[in-house]
Amino acid sequence: MFGGIGQPAAVSLSVHPLTTSVVLQHGSAGNVLVGYVSVQVRRRTGLESLAVRFDGDQRLDMYDGEGPSRTALSVRRQCADIAHTLVECRPTSGPDSAAATLAAAMAVGTARVRRSTSDDCPVAPSPPAGDAYAVADDGLSAGHRPLGVFSTSLPVVLVPGEYRFPFELALPSTLPPSVVSSLGHVAYQIRATMRRPARLFGSTVSSPPVGIRVYQVPRLLAGAPGGATLLGFRSLSALLSTPLLFESTVGGGRWKVSVYSPSSRVLFLGTPLKLRMYATRVDDPAQGCAAPSAGRLALAEFDVALYEYTTHAVPGSPVAPKITRRKVAASSLCPWQPHAEKQQSPPDSPRCSDDGSGSGILELADEMCTLDPQTIGALGEAFDDLPSVASLSLALPASGRRPVQASFSSPVFSVSHRLVVAIRACEGCQDDDLKACTMPARLSLSSRVI
Questions:
Q1: Which residues have C-beta within 8 Å of that of residue 378, sequence separation ≥ 6?
Q2: Residue 101 pLDDT
C-alpha cells in the first residue's frame, strides 16, 4: 500500500546563480542577478507554474542596561521580496488561456535538455560562446540541445529529463549590504518554487535556498560633518590614488621606520594586502650612512592586524548604539611571542634569527640604509624603486570560517575597519638580545581603511 514512499521524488529543483556575490552600484538600474533554475523530472508530471524568488531579512537583538531590569530592543524588517514567474499555465478556457498555454509549452520545450548519445548526436556540439549557463556538471552540459514542442494541451506535461530555465532579477540599489554579527544579521537568499496539479501529498515543490551576499560601492557617509566623504577624501578616485603609508621614528629620532603599500586605503576582499618596511637613517645627509660605531637597529616585531567594528543601532530609539570589535585578519614576520605564527619572508629580505627565547630579531645594520622618504620626490624615485628591509602579506578572505565583511553605513548596521601595524625595535642592542635594552621602542600605527 505504501510501497512508493521510498522512491525518489518525481521532481526536484535547484537554483544556480551565476554568482553568489552582488555589488550594487548606487543609482544604477544595472544591478541584475542572473542564473538558471534546474528542474529534474524523474516521472511524468504536470506543470502549472515555475517562479523564482529573492528575499532578505534584517534582524537585530540587543539589550539596554544590565541585570533583570534590562530592556530588550529588536529590529525585524524584510528588506527584499522580489519574485519573477518563469512559466505559468492557467487551466481556464478562452483565447488568453490558449495563448498562455502555448507560451508555457514553448518555454518548456526550449528549456528541456538531455544527455547526448551515439544514436541521436554522434558529435557533442560545443556550447555557444558566452553561454553563462553552459557549465559542465557531470557531463550534462556538453550535449544539451532543445527539443521540439508537439502539444499545447492543458496542463503542460513534463516528461523525464532535465529542464533549465534562465532568469534575470533586477535588484534595487538601496538594499542594505549583507552583514553577520553576534547581535543580528542582514541575509539574502534565492529559491525556486514549482506548482503542479493538486495531488494527495501537495502540489508545491521548492528548491533549497542559496545564500547571496550583497555589497555596495563605497559612497558618502550619511550625516558626515561638513559633507566629508569616507575617510576624509572628497572623491573615491582620490582615495584610490593615495597609497597606504605609516611613518614614525625610533632611537631618539635617529631612525625613521616607514611601512608602505602601493595599494590605497581601499582594500579588496580576496586580494592580499602587501606591506613593505623601510628603515631610514635621518642623520645629516652630507655624511651619508652613519659609521658602524653609531649603532644599529634590531627589530623584534613586525605585525599587522585588521580589526572590524560593527555598530548596532535601533532607529528612533534613545539608546546609544552598541559597538563590537573583532580581529578578522593578522600576519606577523618576526613574532615576539613564541606561540605566534611565523610567516616566510621573501628571499631578498633579511632573515629572522632566534635567540632561544622565541623572539625573532631582525638586524638593520648601517649598510642597509635606504633613502630618506623626504628626499624621494627630489630624486624622482618612489618606494617601489627602493630596497625594503622586511615585507609581509595580509590575507583578506571573503568567505570561510572568519570572513572579512565589507565596510558600509546604514541606519541599523554599520561596519568599519582599522588597520594596525605593531613594531618593536631597539637601537644599539648588545649580543643581539633585545632584553638587554632598557627602553625598547614600541610603535603602534593605525589607520582607518575601507
A1: none
A2: 57
350 and 409 fall within a common domain: yes
Distance CA 13, CA 49 (A): 13
Domain stop point among 216, 251, 273: 216
Residues 12 and 127 in one domain: yes
CATH of the domain at 99: 2.60.40.640
Same domain, 399 and 266: yes
Average pLDDT, 10 consecutive residues per value, the chain (450 residues): 57 90 74 89 84 92 79 86 83 55 60 45 34 34 33 64 88 88 91 80 82 78 43 72 78 76 78 80 53 57 86 85 88 53 38 37 37 41 59 78 79 86 71 55 79
Instruction: Report CA-CA distances (Å) from 206 to 13, 39, 87, 196.
Output: 6, 10, 15, 11
Residues 148 and 248 in one domain: no
Pairing of strands 413-427, 408-409: antiparallel
Residues near 130 by Cβ (< 8 Å), separated by ≥ 6? none
CA atoms within 13 Å, Cβ hemisphere of 179: 29
325 and 394 share one domain: yes
How would DSSP label each residue in 350-379? Answer: PPPEE-SSS-EEEEE-GGG----GGGHHHH
CB atoms within 10 A of CB 233: 19
Domain tally for the chain? 2
pLDDT of residue 268: 80
Query: What's the grid cell of residue 102?
Result: 502555448
**Which DSSP category does 203 fall into?**
S
Both 67 and 152 in one domain: the answer is yes
| Whole-number pLDDT of residue 380 | 39
Beta bridge partners of 205: 194
Domain extent at residue 37: 3-216
At 210 the pLDDT is 93
| Same domain for 254 and 172 | no
Specify the pTM: 0.69
Q: CB atoms < 10 A from the CB of 95, how many?
A: 7
